[in-house]
Amino acid sequence: MLQGGYQSVLEVRNRNEFRRELGQFTASMDFDTFSAITVVDHSLGRSDFIAIDNCPPGFKDALNDPMLGVRDPVMQHCKRQTVPIVWNQRTYVEQGVGELWEMQASYGYNNGICLALHLPEGRHFVLGMDRREALPADPGKLTRMVADVQLFAVHALDSALRVLLPPEQQLDKPHLTPRELETLRWTMDGKTAWEVGQILSITERTTVLHLGNAMRKLACNNKHQAVLKALRLGLIR
Q1: Alpha-carbon 168 to chain mean position
Q2: pLDDT tens digit string along 60-79?
Q3: Element of type H or E holding 132
Q4: Closest alpha carbon to 69 in 43, 83, 84, 51
Q5: Could you read off the pLDDT of 30-41 as tens digits, one per residue?
Q6: Which of 6, 151, 211, 225 could form a cystine bridge with 220, CB 3.0-4.6 A?
Q7: pTM for the whole thing?
C-alpha cells in the first residue's frame, strides 16, 4: 500500500495544487525552498524547461545567466546521473566555482539535496530542496532524509509531467487489458504473483506475464513503478 504522506501528490489536478504539495512536503522535511523542473528534449539539442518553485525575491534575477547551469556542479551531476546529490559549500569549492555558492548562499541556498529522474521519450524531472542550516551529520538520519526526498520525487514525477507540460507535449495513456489492470490492482495491495494467480484463478506464470506486459506498456522497470504510474494515470484506483 502507498504511504499516506505521498498519496496526495499523486492526485493533484493543477499547477497550484502541485505547488502546494511541494511546499508542504518541503516544510515537513525542514527545508526552506524547493525547485521542481520538467524537461522535454527535442531534436537538434533543443529542450523545454518548465519550473515551479518558491525562490525568494531577487534570486532568479541574480542567477539569470544561462551559463551558470553549465558551471553548477549540482546541475551537472543531475544531468548525467539519477543518484541524489547531497551538496554544500564544499561541493562548489572543490569544483573551483565557490563564487556560485557565495551568490546563492546570500539567498538561503547553503545546503541541499537534488536528484533527477530520466525517462524515455526525452523527458526528465529534477527536484531540489534547500536550506540555510547544515544537513544532519548523523549518517543514518541523512540517509533517511535522502530516501524520503527520493521517494517523494518518484511519486511526484508523473503528476509533474501531467500538470506542468502543455497538452501537445502530453503522452497518450497506454491501453491495458482488464487482466493486466487486475494484476496491478492486487499487486498494489501487496499480493505476490502466486497470490494474485490464486485470486484470479490463473497460474503464477500467467500472472507474471500480465505484469510484464503492463510494465512494458507503462515503460516501467519493475511492478512497483508500474503500480505507481497506473495510479497517476488514473488507470487503477
Answers
A1: 21
A2: 887 777 777 789 999 999 99
A3: none
A4: 51
A5: 999 999 999 988
A6: 225
A7: 0.75
Task: Label each residue of 32-70 as H, E or C.
Answer: CEEEEEEEEECHHHCEEEEEEECCCCCHHHHCCCCCHHH
Domains of the chain and CATH, by start? 4-169 (3.30.450.80), 178-232 (1.10.10.10)
pLDDT at residue 167, as a whole number: 75
Q: CA 29 to CA 26: how far, in whole Å?
A: 5
Q: Distance (Å, rounded) from C-alpha 226 to C-alpha 217?
A: 9
**The three cell numbers locating residue 229:** 504510474
State yes or no: pLDDT of 153 exceeds 70.
Answer: yes
* Residue pair 108/33 in contact by the 8 Å Cβ criterion: yes
**Element housing 131 (H / E):** strand 123-131
State residue 50 phi and psi, 5-degree precision: -125, 115
Cα separation of 180 and 168, whole Å? Answer: 28
pLDDT tens digits, one per residue of 118-152: 877 788 999 999 999 999 999 999 999 999 999 99
In Å, what is the CA distance from 122 to each residue of 54, 169, 199? 26, 11, 38
